[in-house]
Specification:
The protein is an all-alpha fold and 188 residues long. It folds into 2 domains: 125 residues, no CATH class; 53 residues. The chain is 69% helix and 0% strand. The chain has 10 helices and no strands. Helix 1 packs across helix 6 and helix 6 packs antiparallel against helix 7. It is elongated. The chain starts with 6 loop residues before the first helix and ends with a helix.
Length: 188
């Protein structure tokens, strides 16, 4: 799925540290639908989170070498994960702030190369739709398998960890998932 964000204003707004969708939309003179505004807001929020974590494309590419880490990251950022990565690329290009044209071209080529590598890695791991993955075993079944388990944060943690296991073992069966749940619940 390809999405189009108003990158000129995004680049401008990131340079000024203005991370709000209304600001970006106003800069481009757009009439954005609610859905388009949500896309831009999600991308801005993702970049804000990554900036707070001092993340950059190089560290993200390194993390994406592991299927579990990449899957968890994509799931955390939801269906607009690609917009977050592209926004991070725009943010990096803006932050580099090269003063001469040839230096700017080199830096931009480096960022584009990293973006390409990240998206290629996601494709090779077959994680483009990782944000859609649900646990093979739902909460009701977990409570049936583990009678002492009640709804709450521990149940939620088990389901989150199960989803993470599914990224690591993409061919996991329901029986294997149930076995994993019982084993994991004993350690909690």
């Amino acid at each position: 799925m390809a999405i189009c964000l108003p990158f000129n204003s995004l680049r401008h707004s990131l340079g000024k540290r203005e991370y709000t969708a209304p600001y970006i939309i106003q800069q481009d003179g757009l009439k954005a639908t609610a859905n388009e505004t949500k896309i831009i807001s999600d991308a801005c929020e993702g970049v804000r989170q990554l900036s707070n974590e001092s993340r950059n494309l190089s560290s993200l590419l390194e993390d994406f070498q592991l299927r579990r880490t990449a899957g968890n990251w994509i799931q955390h950022h939801g269906k607009w994960w690609s917009a977050v990565i592209l926004s991070l690329g725009v943010s990096e290009m803006t932050a580099l702030g090269a003063t001469d044209f040839s230096r700017a071209q080199m830096l931009e080529a480096d960022v584009i190369s990293k973006l390409h590598a990240i998206f290629s890695q996601v494709r090779s791991l077959q994680l483009e739709d990782a944000w859609r993955i649900k646990p093979l075993v739902d909460g009701k079944r977990v409570m049936q398998l583990c009678p002492s388990m009640k709804r709450g944060p521990i149940l939620g943690q088990i389901l989150k960890e199960l989803t993470s296991e599914q990224f690591e073992y993409p061919h996991m069966t329901i029986d294997e998932a149930e076995t994993w749940v019982v084993r994991r619940s004993k350690n909690m």
